[in-house]
Amino acid sequence: MSDIITAAVEALNEKISGFEKVAKFDIEGEGSIIIDEDGARAGDDDADVTLLADVDTFRGILEGTQNPTTAFMSGKLKVEGDMGAAMQLASTLA
Known about the structure:
Elements: H1 3-15, E1 23-27, E2 31-36, E3 39-42, E4 49-53, H2 55-63, H3 68-73, E5 77-81, H4 83-93
Parallel strand pairs: 1-4
Antiparallel strand pairs: 1-2, 2-3, 4-5
């Protein structure tokens, strides 16, 4: 597991609580993170929604310097699957 995935899992577990769906962050060149009601962990399980981004975009979202909606609208963040779950996750991260 990459250092980026490890650090992201730790950061997400500090922010995420009560997320009732299953989401996957697919970070280009690094791997995937699963977020569900138990928190965040490295993994590539099936998910209700998959969010695809490069390392810089993902880091910006986690650090709060990149708005997830703006990233999506500008093409930096791609969403596959349940858009409602993506919006719920974005509000959880804000």
